[in-house]
Amino acid sequence: MKDAVANQPANTPGETMQKDPVGGLLQVEHLRTVFRQGRREVKAVDGISFSVNPGETLAIVGESGSGKSMTAMSLLRLIPSPPGEIIDGDVFFGGRNLLDMSEDELRDVRGNEIAMIFQEPMTSLNPVLTVRQQLAEPMRVHRKVKEEDIEARCLDLLRQVRIPDPETRLDAYPHQFSGGMRQRVMIAMALACEPRLLIADEPTTALDVTVQAQILELLKDLTRQHGSSMILITHDLGVVARYADRINVMYAGRIVESGTAREIFEQPRHPYTLGLINSMPRLDASEKARLLPIEGQPPDLGNLPTGCAFHPRCPFAVDQCRQQDPPLEPYQGHHLKACWVNVDD
Amino acid sequence: MTTETAPAALTTRPPTTPPLRERLGDNKVLGFIGRLIVQRPMGAFGAAICIVLLLTGVFADVIAPEGYNAINPIDRLKPPSAEYWLGTDQLGRDLFTRIVHGAQLSVIVAFAATSLSIVISAVIGITSGYFGGRFDMASQRVVDGWMCFPDLIILIVAVSVLGPGTWQVILILGLLFGISGSRIVRSSVLSVKQNIYIHAAQSMGASTLRILVMHILPNVMAPIIVLFTTRLAAVILAESGLSFLGLGIPPPAPSWGGMLSLDGRSYMFQAPWLAIVPGVALTVAVFGINMFGDALRDMLDPRMKGVGSGRYVAAVRRDRPSSRQSTGGTAQ
């Protein structure tokens, strides 16, 4: 059953071993995406840089509106334009700049080398097409898979995402699946061409808690099996702690702290990260301990405060924070933070 | 989850359990016909009229084998009798034969013009709605401009340029209804394109053409089908109107509108059947198609689900997460 898959290798060394000047699989530099509303310019992604190494899971966390999803969409140039526009930056993937590619070249990358999973499993499958048709679509678009092999490949994908009884489910319509099962189908579609990078945009937000864990385990297992990297976008720190290797914390379109999962959780160095961790319920806390919310509202991205965007909500803010924007600088090794203040626990 | 699809499935499902696909197939077609008869008896009646009209059109030469222009001067203006079921006209032509062949003409014009109009509506509506932006702006202003002119004026101008005739009528009516219908398609495309599966298809590397044909088009089929049925009746009426005015299909072709005008009006008092029969034929055909079209619209539109009990039912159904997809699935 495996051999149908093995016949269409996506990640054979010969095909993918392009020399990568920057080392990582994905290298994002100074990415800047804005949305224009009349005269107003909303900075959804405000000059961020990060990289993803092969086989690694990078989490991007932050509140709603912090630019997490927009970052992901910008990588594949899926920003609705107008009103959105990527105005600056480079996205190197396997040595090529995705932002310089023609629409045709980019189409070869989408779904083939970089695949995406969306937040809403209820609406991310086309209601009028069967699962078979939808699973086969990436293969029809990107691979010249013979028609007789497609069925075997679809069945294999459904088995990989652990959908029971795949033979009968293949011809079912999305409305006959539960949310968790639909998300499994989405994952199967994303993996159909064995991409090197999987972008999962809040893959479990719309699911029950019990199903969330299953889906995340599945994603982790499958990316490990295929040796793919993953960008996991979420606002759920619990998810991040368990499944991410490295974490980027985003606030108001910028990365405010970046480090390994251990560094971020054990030594958060940005007040915002600290606030996020403190506002997370913990079972091991004493019963009297209260959750500490971050006061205030996320800023209006069309009208950011001067200096550090977080300063109006920051308990540690000093004068410098109100005037100067802190750069993202190394704190220790690869642990980066964008804050003027030295926050200790 | 399959039990959710439709209550009708319970009655049509065979006792043994065949593969899911077959079961759904039964469920869709038979279940839909069953629901049509039970929930919308007038719609079913309309459907029956449509079928009769269609069969008459297709088998016109079998039903009335004599030519519709066979002249029999001795038997002119005969009232309905055993020999001439619906009487004869001023040239002694059998009215029954002419009505039957008129049905054929109506069916041909209606289907050809409506199909043309649907293709035009779909192409304009889908591209305009999907691409949005300046393209949408430009094409919608053209549509606006077109719709500013009263239909009749466009028709008269077009006929005077192209001349009367069957193909001219089909072309003009197709264009006329196609452009105004594009609005309906466009508005459904606007809502369909917001769905994440369209985004997902883009993220998967599907080409624009593929997205339009594989993802947008099947999801706007329900309004397109409804548009088709409602436009059928409108086209039949419009063709008759044109022929009545002498701008449509010229005599001696047996157009119902032409028969009403030329023979019917001139001999209304000597031979009233000449006006009554084509008038009734026209009315019944349009009535039947409209009834069927209305029922179809109600049943394909998930917001109009639930017989008569209106908004409450619709609201409840909308709140149930899977009901939208399930009704859409069973209806098509």
TrEMBL record, chain A:
It is a peripheral membrane protein. It is found in: Cell inner membrane. One of its GO terms (molecular function) is ATP binding. It comes from the Bacteria. It catalyses: a dipeptide(out) + ATP + H2O = a dipeptide(in) + ADP + phosphate + H(+). Its main location: membrane. The keyword DNA damage does not apply. Residues 26-277 form the ABC transporter domain. Its EC number is 7.4.2.9. InterPro entries: AAA+_ATPase (IPR003593), ABC_Ni/Peptide_Import (IPR050388), ABC_transporter-like_ATP-bd (IPR003439), ABC_transporter-like_CS (IPR017871), Oligopep_ABC_C (IPR013563), P-loop_NTPase (IPR027417). It is an enzyme of class 7 (translocase). Residues 1-22 are annotated as: Disordered. Keywords: ATP-binding, Cell membrane, Membrane, Nucleotide-binding, Transport. SUPFAM superfamilies: P-loop containing nucleoside triphosphate hydrolases. Belongs to the ABC transporter superfamily. This is ABC-type dipeptide transporter.
UniProtKB/TrEMBL annotation, chain B:
It is found in: Cell membrane. Residues 1-20 are annotated as: Disordered. Pfam families: BPD_transp_1. Keywords: Cell membrane, Membrane, Transmembrane, Transmembrane helix, Transport. Residues 1-14 have a biased composition (Low complexity). The keyword Transmembrane applies. It is a multi-pass membrane protein. Residues 103-293 form the ABC transmembrane type-1 domain. PROSITE patterns: ABC_TM1. The chain crosses the membrane at residues 44-64, 105-131, 152-176, 196-217, 224-249, 269-293. PANTHER family: D,D-DIPEPTIDE TRANSPORT SYSTEM PERMEASE PROTEIN DDPC-RELATED (PTHR43386:SF1), OLIGOPEPTIDE TRANSPORT SYSTEM PERMEASE PROTEIN APPC (PTHR43386). Belongs to the binding-protein-dependent transport system permease family. This is Peptide ABC transporter permease.
